Amino acid sequence: MAAIAENNVNADNQHTTPPLEEKLNGMKLKDETKVAAETLDQAKKQEEVAAAAAAEEEEVAVEVEPKTGISFPVKLADGKELMTVGLRKKSMLGMGIKIYGFGMYYDKEKLKENLKTKIDSKASTKPTKEMYQAVIDSDSAMTVRLVIVFSSLTMNMVKKNFDEGLGASIKKLTGGKKNDDLANKVMGAASDGIKLSSGSVIEISRLPGNVLQTKVVDEVISKVDSELLCRAYVNMYLGDDPLDKEAKEKFGMQLLSMF
Predict the structure, then answer these.
(1) A Pfam family in this protein (predicted)?
(2) What's 75's DSSP letter?
(3) Which residues of 146-168 are buried (b: 16+ CB within 10 A; e: fewer)?
(4) pLDDT tens digits, one per residue of 184-240
(5) Closest alpha carbon to 205 in 139, 110, 126
(6) SS3 assignment, position 142
(7) What is the pLDDT of residues 82-108, one digit of tens each?
(8) Rounded to 5 degrees, what are φ and ψ at 108?
């Protein structure tokens, strides 16, 4: 009888996993699952890094402003497309100093939509004053990217230049009425301590709703809600006395080609 009982116990032991061994097997399975998950996660991250690197390496189409050699991408990240490039010069000590190169960008589809009833490309082979005025008056998304050329340019000089230029443009649009307070709102809040150097970027954008936004070295300096100010800024480039006549003419030809 004792032998039979002993055999039964041995049989039970053969079919029962010791609690400690069962716990160890469970821990091992969890560890293996965790390692597999971490490996998969690392693989995904490596794929993302590789994709980002490939995107950076992809050559971006640019247009070079010929007088400065500055390259402007033909399309911005927000979809606006390059319409023209030009140069802003300033007379100093009897010399024409290159201040900055600029690229003018528009949302072409929106611009075309806004102007389709005002421009008849079949009636004209050259841009007309009315065409330029239609763009100036249009509440179309626009960005002008300025790239500094003059290495000794200071923020104070930039503010003074903009105040004068915008002030004069406002007077032209209002029949000679001055509005220095409005002109000063564009750069007035910019700190004189902002360091500028050759290659520094300033972007001034006309946002929907006639808001003029100014960014200096990626920092938003101002947002001014004013239709007059928006029109005056575009007028500096496309009005009767543009900063760069060749750039204005090229803009006009691009405009005609859209229609």
Answers:
(1) Chalcone_3
(2) B
(3) bbbbbeebebeebbebbbebbbb
(4) 999 988 888 899 999 999 999 999 899 999 999 999 999 999 999 999 999 999 999
(5) 139
(6) strand
(7) 999 999 998 877 788 999 999 999 999
(8) -60, -40
